[in-house]
Structure formats: C-alpha cells, structure tokens
Amino acid sequence: MSRNWIAVASAEHVRIGRAGGFMQVCHGKAAPLRRIRPGDGVVYYSPTDKFGEPTPLRCFTALGRVVTGEPYQADMGNGFHPFRRDVRWAEAKAAPIAPLLDRLEFSAGKKNWGYQLRFGLFEVSDHDFELIARAMEAEAMASAD
Hints:
Pfam families: EVE. InterPro entries: EVE_domain, PUA-like_sf, UPF0310. This is UPF0310 protein LZ012_08170. By secondary structure, this protein is of the alpha+beta class. Helix content is about 15%, strand content about 30%. It has a single domain (about 5-135), classed as ph1033 like fold (Roll). Strands 1, 2, 3, 4, 5, 6, 7 and 8 form an 8-stranded mixed beta sheet that branches. The longest helix is centred in the first third of the chain and has 10 residues, at about 10-20. The model has no long low-confidence stretch (mean pLDDT about 95).
C-alpha cells in the first residue's frame, strides 16, 4: 500500500530535483528517505523561492511518485554528499497553500498547522494528496515503475 508525503524545500531546490529526477530532504539526510517506498506519492511545499530568502512563497511546487530503488548518496563536487531518491515528477502547476488550509486534513482547524513543516518530511492522507494534486492541476499518475 502506497503512502503520501509532503517534503519541504525552497522552490529553487525543488527545481533542481525536478530537473534531475530526484528528491532530497532535511539537508540531504538519509534517514527520512528510508521511510519512503517506491510507489509513494510526494508533494513539495516551498515556503520560499530561494533558500534563506525572507520573501514567502508558500506554494506546493512539485508532485510525483517515488520510483524503484533505494536512497543513494550523490557527490555534488563541493564536499556535500546528500542522500536522494529517484522520483517520476508529474507535469503540475504551483499552487498556493492558503486556499487549501481549511480542506486539508493535516491543517483544517489547526492554528499551528505549519509546525509539522519544520520536520522537512511528513506523511499525509490520500485525501490531502489528491486535493493538492487537483489544486496543482497535476497529470494523472499511475504507480511508480
């Protein structure tokens, strides 16, 4: 049975992952990626466009399914060796979170809904994943290879 996840990263970092067909979370840590399995749905929430930039974006910026394989370590050539998982990204548009807050199960009726975003990766229901996918006008996605 597949699960669904929200990962958190700046839109700039999400664009790099989409272009490379991968995801990474929590500054490249392996442990969170080991909770994710092939076929799981992943949606990225981007609080900002660029890491460290104070101007808020607050949008869902990518949606996809994890493909077969395990987390692996990449060499970025600058001494940074983050762990990644491969993802088949859907064609989708960025969607602001604000109009969805009252309808998402993880946030509805919760004053401090953003607290869990601080963990960088958390599981969400099928309802929330599908609601976000519709808001992003994401293409239909079958399970991963």
